[in-house]
Amino acid sequence: xxxxxxxxxxxxxxxxxxxxxxxxxxxxxxxxxxxxxxxxxxxxxxxxxxxxxxxxxxxxxxxxxxxxxxxxxxxxxxxxxxxxxxxxxxxxxxxxxxxxxxxxxxxxxxxxxxxxxxxxxxxxxxxxxxxxxxxxxxxxxxxxxxxxxxxxxxxxxxxxxxxxxxxxxxxxxxxxxxxxxxxxxxxxxxxxxxxxxxxxxxxxxxxxxxxxxxxxxxxxxxxxxxxxxxxxxxxxxxxxxxxxxxxxxxxxxxxxxxxxxxxxxxxxxxxxxxxxxxxxxxxxxxxxxxxxxxxxxxxxxxxxxxxxxxxxxxxxxxxxxxxxxxxxxxxxxxxxxxxxxxxxxxxxxxxx
Length: 352
Prior knowledge:
The protein is an alpha/beta fold. The chain folds into two domains: 5-135, Four Helix Bundle (Hemerythrin (Met), subunit A) (Up-down Bundle); 145-343, 3-Layer(aba) Sandwich (Rossmann fold), CATH 3.40.50. It is 40% helix and 17% strand. The protein contains eleven helices and 16 strands. The chain has helices spanning 32-40, 47-63, 70-85, 92-107, 113-143, 169-178, 195-206, 219-224, 250-259, 291-294, 335-343, and strands at residues 5-8, 11-15, 26-29, 150-154, 183-188, 211-214, 230-233, 237-239, 244-247, 264-267, 273-274, 295-296, 299-300, 313-316, 323-326, 329-331. The strands form four sheets. A seven-stranded mixed beta sheet has the order 6-5-4-7-10-15-16. Strands 11-8-9-14 form a four-stranded mixed beta sheet, covered by helices on one side. It has a three-stranded antiparallel beta sheet with strand order 1-2-3, covered by helices on one side. Helix 3 runs antiparallel to helix 4 (92-107) and helix 4 crosses helix 5. The two termini are 28 Å apart. The model has no long low-confidence stretch (mean pLDDT 95).
């Protein structure tokens, strides 16, 4: 598996996902501005990866602050946090990571400024390591839901590239393969930025996991023909009632899965759950640039000057979600109750 994000000698190193699959190019971000720009421009994407990258970017930013005392340091650090928070609005892991880094700084406020910086760097590294460990635990919990020789549809990219490593939805698939199960992954291309075609197909093929690429509008036909056994997707934000914000097109896949009696699973860490939002109606949806729809790369595919809608995400109501796979176990309906239990640190019921 490729290393999506690393922290090397005070530098945040990212694989540039805009260049995949044709080129494997790495970006070295030596200041927080470069990290923020990488998040904003989709050089790094995927909710968990955004959170980890933001935390590392804040550690880099903190290193460069010149301050004589904590109050002076805190004022500048809070400004850097605001810059990072403004990069993308939907992925709640971004704000979770920023809040965690702020809390770390406040806990150390009585220490010297160099010691505060050292603690922030340790916290960012911890967030990175925890993400990979949580993904592996998620995979072990979720693989029990995957039968031998399953044909699995996934939408967008929720693999190693969307996390610090291993993946959420693809992590569940990887864990099933590691348990000796044979699977076939069917990847939606995921218009308009083609994360399924460029990223999911690339990393599964690289790992030797069988993958078949389809156009987004083929899913219903394959379901009707009995060619899909289950659906697993990731998430960018999950409301307290279990409504799930994920890449645009996910809602349509969930509706089709329910119509065909196919289980629809979501794999996401607890950090993706926003317990402050009662439902998905309150989840902010990012609207991106029109050229993502009107162009493929630099090539125009639509008339110049037309009106374009380009929401990056949609919300799937909890009624379509069979279960949410997390690092603490599989959360089942009623999702509002199982989510509340998980957020309180209570183990979910053990069931498959």
